[in-house]
Amino acid sequence: MAKKLFIPGPVEVHPDILQAMATPMIGHRMPEYADLHGRVTAGLKRLLATESRVFLATSSAFGVMEGAVRNLVGSRCVNFCNGAFSDKWHDVTKRCGKEADAVKVEWGEPITAEVVDRALATGKYDSMTLIHNETSTGVMSPLPEIAAVLRKYPEVVSIIDTVSSMSALSIPVDELGIDCCIFGVQKAFALPPGLAVFTASEKALSRARTVEGRGYYFDFVEFETNDAKNNTPSTPCISLIYALDRQLGRMFGEGVEQRWARHREMASFVRGWVAERGYGFFAAEPYRSVTLTCAVNSRGTDLAALKKMLAERGYAFDDGYGKIKGKTFRIPHMGDMRRQDLEEFLAVVDDCLGGLPG
Ligand SMILES: Cc1ncc(COP(=O)(O)O)c(C=O)c1O
Q1: Of 3.30.360.10, 2.30.290.10, 3.90.1150.10, 3.40.640.10, which CATH number belongs to 15-253?
Q2: CA of 97 to the centre of ligand 1 (A)
Q3: Angle between helix 303-312 and 339-354 (nearest 10)
Q4: Does the beta carbon of 60 sit less than 6 angstroms from any atom of ligand 1?
Q5: Which among 91, 135, 294, 330 is the best mutation to test ligand 1's pocket, defined by most ligand atoms within 8 Å of the CB?
Q6: How far is CA 309 from CA 267, 340, 350, 354, in A?
Q7: Where is the Aminotransferase class V domain (predicted)?
Q8: Going residue by residue through the chain (358 aa), what tens digit of pLDDT does each one get?
Q9: 131 CB near ligand 1 (under 6 Å)
Q10: Burial, 347: exposed, middle or buried (Cβ in 10 Å; 0-12, 13-18, 19+)?
Q11: pTM here?
């Protein structure tokens, strides 16, 4: 039996989306693909509130996260680190042969505007990476405040991961001045994995043109050239792009502001459950993520046993990530999920907890 996913990505995929994935295949050099590509990128520009180029890459998010570093880091990069994915991005930056420094704060802490300002004020960097919503810790860093600081440093190209936040709240890419905004589709977009979306400002594209060693598969200049023809450098995951087309229609049908409100409401419901059951929060307010809650296992629940019990009842549960596995657990509230789904899931969790010590 397939388990119902209550993990922070991939998340449950709506049957309409699975049906869109079954659309008969087309060739990516056929006019039908150009129509699809043009429609999808126009929808993404509307959703992201950007006039920048929006590109579709056939890969998981880390493909583009690596690609962005290869394209946009000229002299030296600062990687802001506050969890597993941002720590890994620093490692990836170094593995690409780039000069890079990590500015680390404790897991559970946000990257604040002050932290960004202090690092950039050194004048050492021409690029920076930041994860808006650290999925490993459930921390959402304050993007508008950070964006205000970035305006002081026009020489710095900003590369921002919105992998687990894009579409769940307002992230107006141009207003925030994000040069390269990256996300995968298996989280708040609620599509199957395998497609990553990214934007590139004029500043980002100008930088890419001057940087050597961009490779081919994620060369931003190749993406720009092909996008001008509503196309991609290599054969894209056409079925997923059909799914994205359908999902954008569903998002605009729901209304983006309603979608943001639904995410806020689900977050508040889950936080209420966590507090009532006597668990703690790994993130402090106002930095708790709107798309997942990372709870501290302050009751000492046997999370491995809970996960097993939930699996037997048909639910996939997450018992923490990386070095905080077992000490924390994460409850997602993103994508096409509704409050009723969370009510159903948490009632089963309560039932299982009743059979466990602690
Ligand atoms: C914030 C964040 N960034 C990056 C990634 C990596 O994404 P992918 O596995 O799609 O490469 C994840 C995956 O969970 C994530 O949550």
Answers
A1: 3.40.640.10
A2: 21
A3: 120
A4: yes
A5: 135
A6: 24, 21, 11, 11
A7: 89-318
A8: 799 999 999 999 999 999 999 999 999 999 999 999 999 999 999 999 999 999 999 999 999 999 999 999 999 999 999 999 999 999 999 999 999 999 999 999 999 999 999 999 999 999 999 999 999 999 999 999 999 999 999 999 999 999 999 999 999 999 999 999 999 999 999 999 999 999 999 999 999 999 999 999 999 999 999 999 999 999 999 999 999 999 999 999 999 999 999 999 999 999 999 999 999 999 999 999 999 999 999 999 999 999 999 999 999 999 999 999 999 999 999 999 999 999 999 999 999 999 887 6
A9: yes
A10: exposed
A11: 0.97
Length of the chain: 358
> Best mutation site among 62, 89, 197 for ligand 1, i.e. most ligand atoms within 8 A of its Cβ?
62
Amino acid (1-letter code) at residue 306: L
Q: Which residue in the block uniquely carries the two structure tokens 């054969």?
A: 235
Does residue 135 have its Cβ closer than 6 Å to ligand 1? yes
C-beta atoms surrounding 332 within 10 Å? 27
Strands (E), the chain: 4-6, 53-57, 77-81, 100-104, 127-131, 133-134, 139-140, 157-161, 180-184, 196-200, 280-281, 292-296, 315-317, 328-332
The answer to whether 330 is annotated as binding is yes
